[in-house]
Amino acid sequence: MTRQQHTRAARLAAGLASVSVLIAACGSTTPAESPATVEEDVPHGYVEGAEETAEAQSRLVIADAETGGVRVLDLIDEEVHEVGQVEGVEDIAGDGRFGYVAGADDAVHVIDSGSWMVDHGDHVHYYRAEVRDVGTVDGVELTDAFSDPVVTAVSSADGRTLVLDRAELDGGTVVPRVEEVPVAGTSATVPYREHLLAPAGGGAGDGTVEIRDRDGEAVSTLDVTCEDPRGQALTRRGVVFGCADGALLVTEDDGRFDGELIAYPEPVEDGERISTFRHRPGSTTLVGTAGDAGGWLLDVTERTWRHWATTEPVVAANTAGEGSAVLVLTADGVLRGLDPDTGEETAAVPLLEPGAAAGTPAPVIEVDTTRAYVNDPTSGEIHEIDYNDDLRVARTLEVPGLASHMVETGR
């Protein structure tokens, strides 16, 4: 069965299941039933206005730096949804559902991709809904964006974070909940375990990491500091902040937050440290470039670092984690697979023209549980890679205009 046939079958099964629930609910309803009784018939995980599906509904939010066009590409049926225009597109971030597109006017445009996952720990729910432009967050020079079920934190390069109400965002409206949380430099605030984690900004930019409640009020600080924080990631094991001497892992147990420094195996120069973490959502293996032709792999579970190197300058990297190859795109346009333990090259495929790979904006590698996606910023092409089959190009997808900036949702 092909991936498309499997998807049609899964949709049909999900649709029949929904019909069965509806028939059961209607068949059991009597005039004597109370509204509370009817409400209990709503399926677990229900989200108003969305369709629950049997599998992930992966989509790509893509922004054209030349025309400002923003599009959402459905990776299931390959349909392209035109969303709107953002003048002077400069960057993009994602939180699994929303794409945050930074424009030249210091405004972040929030795009609802209509695709997301709800993780209940022992099981997950997948949803799809209409694609839409939710609105803008003004006065923000985007560095990163993170969400939990209650809040969304959009951080700015001027050292502050704007916290949005997630329920309002899900409903299609941008509503600030906290006007400003100060953060250090270009780091970001990360919602975690009903709190906000923020490398301290303002006068406290001394490596302190603050624990704040969802209304932005300071609760405590970690005992372990993070000097010169750059880069952050949310994993199943906790939140990771990149520091001058390694990575700070923040965990929570019964309301207590603890920090643990995972130090580099040896001192590294400023230009050789990792400053941006990339990983598959849900994975605890992170990678990032370091210097002109190398990078680092951080195994959060094992608390270990591994250095990898290439013969060509690196422009993008990512990994599916858990023993999977490190995916590296070099400036010559070649996508390479590196053994995560030894750093040896295990596969290579010419993918982009050198000018496309080494240009500005640079391509990115987005990874999910079965495929990787690499955009060509000089065209509208996105290459779907089967990273478990010697980097085989499974599909070449295309959108109108340029695929300058890209982020995957639905995972």
Q: Outline of this structure?
A:
By secondary structure, the chain is mainly beta. Helix content is 10%, strand content 45%.
Question: How would you portray this structure in words?
Answer:
The protein is mainly β and 411 residues long. It contains four helices and 34 strands. The protein has helices at 3-28, 35-39, 166-170, 354-357, and strands at residues 51-53, 59-63, 69-74, 80-85, 91-94, 98-102, 107-112, 115-119, 124-128, 132-138, 142-147, 151-156, 160-165, 176-182, 190-192, 195-199, 209-213, 218-221, 232-235, 238-243, 246-253, 256-263, 285-289, 294-299, 304-309, 314-319, 326-330, 334-338, 345-350, 365-367, 372-375, 381-386, 392-398, 405-409. It has a four-stranded antiparallel sheet with strand order 4-3-2-34, with no helix packed on it. A four-stranded antiparallel sheet has the order 5-6-7-10, with no helix packed on it. The chain has a four-stranded antiparallel sheet with strand order 11-12-13-14. It is globular, with a radius of gyration of 22 Å. Mean pLDDT is 90; it is low at 1-40.
Q: Total number of β-strand segments? A: 34
- Quaternary structure state of the chains depicted: single chain
**Kindly state the mean pLDDT as a whole number?**
90
| Low-pLDDT residue spans | 1-40
